[in-house]
């Protein structure tokens, strides 16, 4: 019944945790999108060297992480993406030198 409801006495812990999770996923997704688009823009549209683009993107990602108060997991993810970019870019450059001239 509507008369049983007392304002302010409902437990909203589940709703709050769901909302907090939604915000966290939104922030993570947004930052990953920004970092990815920034790297691709610098490397392909601007024409920067891939390594310079990767370093600049990592710096920007770190600054954004600090600005948004991200936890250690963000920096570990950013470092992993940096290493992944180094490996992929190095392999492409190596194969380009070996087969492309």
From TrEMBL:
UniProt KW Ribonucleoprotein keyword: no
Highest taxon above the source species: Bacteria
Domain (Cytochrome c oxidase subunit IV bacterial aa3 type): residue spans on this chain: 7-44
Membrane-spanning parts: 21-44, 50-68, 75-99
Signal sequence annotation: none
Alphabetically ordered keywords of this record: Membrane, Transmembrane, Transmembrane helix
Stored InterPro entries: Cyt-C_aa3_sf, Cyt_c_oxidase_su4_bac-aa3
Name listed for the protein in its UniProt record: Aa3 type cytochrome c oxidase subunit IV
Organism: Maricaulis maris (strain MCS10)
């Amino acid at each position: 019944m509507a008369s049983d409801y007392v304002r302010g006495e409902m437990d909203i812990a589940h709703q709050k945790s769901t909302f907090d999770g939604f915000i966290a996923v939104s922030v993570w997704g947004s930052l990953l999108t920004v970092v990815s688009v920034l790297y691709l823009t610098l490397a392909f549209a601007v024409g920067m060297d891939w390594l310079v683009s990767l370093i600049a993107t990592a710096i920007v990602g770190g600054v954004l992480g600090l600005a948004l108060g991200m936890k250690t997991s963000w920096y570990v993810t950013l470092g992993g993406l940096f290493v992944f970019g180094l490996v992929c870019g190095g392999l492409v450059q190596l194969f380009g030198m070996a087969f492309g001239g």
